[in-house]
Design brief:
By secondary structure, this protein is α/β, with parallel strands linked by helices. It contains eleven helices and ten strands. The protein has a five-stranded mixed β-sheet with strand order 3-2-1-4-5, sandwiched between helices. Strands 8-7-6-9-10 form a five-stranded mixed β-sheet, sandwiched between helices.
């Protein structure tokens, strides 16, 4: 089956072509440069950029895959969660194409896309990853932080999630506090590599071992209070140590609750995905965790499959269509607060 994936939930305009699970093309047009100077994503700017870019991005995806739109079997588009006015650009484009070319259409949950990003294959059909259930997934990005028990594709149970900020959001906000660029995660990662993570002592959010939920806003506030009276020169002198300390506090929290969830749910496989999973230190910690519990661990095989992309949306759409869960191009709508 040939699937065209479309993703516009935040600040990346994305289109991808899949042949079942194999990526034939995966185009990502990042808007970072447009939002950078505002220190975060500006919804109106995102919407306009998606409108300008979506058709050229789809055309490039088709061209790279050497597929004509008439040969496509399915259009999969992110319907939510995400920024409503950004999502609507993708959904309206997908509906227009489905009606014009008489194609099947499915609206996909963005978080399911991140979960399934671990099962994408290159055009050469690698890596081959069997589904092993139950799996326990940690999806960690700028918009969400969730621990999800997967009994089978399409059967998901959120067993822990953030009660306030997402982990990526916390990294982005702390980077902003330090006067660093947007998005903060990759900048913090780069600085943290050279810093002393024991430099600042930060609290342990939700220490109760029975609770699997996350909280990151307290960490961010504690960080703010520790450095708020520092002169800029002192902050700059200790930038690498501050980055390392904050990143460690976020990752300690991520791993601690994930470990508790592993012990409680005894999964047979671990999956980690989402923008923050691009981080080398988190990936290393995840590998150590998998070793400790003697479990297989799947991480997206390419860096760009961690962050937002349309290949993961196309794959989620593929499985949804196989379940017979198609949408109508007349009634499909965005759902900016969609739950899994
Ligand atoms: O999955 P994603 O592209 O978009 C959402 O669905 O939110 O994730 C974006 C988030 C941002 O918060 C960004 O700072 C973070 O992922 N991120 C990283 C890294 N690359 C992106 N965080 C830590 N280390 C990275 N290398
Ligand atoms: Zn995402």
């Amino acid at each position: 089956m040939y699937i065209l994936g479309i993703e516009t939930s935040c600040d990346d305009t994305c289109a991808a072509l899949l042949k079942d699970s194999q990526i034939l093309s995966n185009i990502i047009s990042s808007q970072i440069d447009l939002h950078k100077k505002w220190g975060g994503v500006v919804p109106d700017i995102a919407k306009r950029a998606h409108q300008d870019r979506i058709f050229p991005v789809i055309e490039t995806a088709l061209k790279r895959a050497k597929i004509k739109i008439t040969d496509i079997d399915l259009i999969a588009v992110t319907k939510g969660p995400g920024l409503a006015i950004a999502l609507s650009v993708g959904v309206n484009t997908a509906k227009e194409l489905a009606l014009k070319y008489y194609k099947n259409i499915v609206g996909v949950n963005h978080i399911e896309g991140h979960l399934l990003a671990n099962f994408l294959m290159s055009g050469r059909g690698k890596p081959i990853r069997p589904f092993i259930f139950p799996s326990l997934a940690l999806t960690v990005s700028g918009g969400h932080t969730k621990i999800i028990l997967i009994n089978k594709i399409g059967d998901y149970k959120v067993v822990g999630e953030t009660l306030d900020d997402a982990a990526g959001e916390a990294l982005d906000k702390s980077a902003k506090l330090l006067g660093l660029g947007y998005p903060g995660g990759p900048v913090i990662e780069r600085l943290a590599e050279k810093g002393d993570s024991a430099f600042l002592k930060l609290p342990t959010p939700i220490a109760d071992k029975k609770i699997l939920d996350y909280s990151f806003s307290g960490l961010k506030t504690a960080f703010y209070y520790q450095i708020k009276d520092w002169p800029k020169t002192k902050i700059n002198r200790h930038l690498v140590d501050l980055a390392a300390s904050f990143q460690k506090a976020v990752f300690d929290t991520l791993i601690r609750k994930y470990s508790l969830a592993i012990e409680k749910y005894q999964p047979k496989c671990l999956l980690i995905s989402g923008g923050v999973a691009a981080n080398k230190d988190l990936r290393k910690r995840a590998r150590n965790l998998a070793k400790k519990y003697k479990l297989p661990l799947y991480l997206p095989f390419k860096k760009e499959l961690n962050t937002d992309n349309a290949a993961m949306i196309a794959l989620a759409g593929y499985y949804q269509a196989k379940r017979g869960d198609l949408d109508s191009p007349y009634t499909l709508d965005t759902d900016s607060r969609a739950e899994l």
